[in-house]
Request: fold
Amino acid sequence: DAGVIQSPRHEVTEMGQEVTLRCKPISGHNSLFWYRQTMMRGLELLIYFNNNVPIDDSGMPEDRFSAKMPNASFSTLKIQPSEPRDSAVYFCASSRASGTIPGELFFGEGSRLTVL
Amino acid sequence: QQQVKQSPQSLIVQKGGISIINCAYENTAFDYFPWYQQFPGKGPALLIAIRPDVSEKKEGRFTISFNKSAKQFSLHIMDSQPGDSATYFCAARESGGGADGLTFGKGTHLIIQP
Reply:
């Protein structure tokens, strides 16, 4: 089975540009999560969706960040305008909320963002 | 506020030795404590998990020890191998949250020397 698929794997952009990160969760999973990983702050939960509905976006740093999940197989995380401090690895993860192992998240391989 | 505190930040262990990583938490509503393993260039993957109604769980060379009264839990890797070199994250999930979102520790970078 295909895992969580993220694109792009690497993105280098200039400050002020719009960045869109994409995620395809595992088929049948009904929860989707966006995490950000940095050396200083570790893994931070930005937002999660349940059945395509945003449940908690309290981790989104500021209004420059937005996330959507238009259907069960696709989600985007957008940063507009981007800033150098947004440089990080962004992970998408999915889970089956009624699964036998609670809390098991399946992560994609991440999108490494560098904002110059 | 960091809800799950993990230590050490980095750890070097000789091949065959025991690797020990510790985590502490404050939120008594946490009811599920997994450990994730991350290799360079990859996303974290579930390694082993425990619920607070047991004090220990063992899977192969990996053991979680859980101390509910002290609000601490640890990962022990017995007979550590170079292939165990990775970053390890402890995590916790709050009960009744209606979702599987996890709060992660900051990670431990483990190096097993041959």
The two ends of chain A are 37 Å apart (CA to CA). The longest strand of chain A covers residues 42-50. The mean pLDDT of chain A is 92. Residues 67 and 77 of chain A are 4 Å apart (CA to CA).
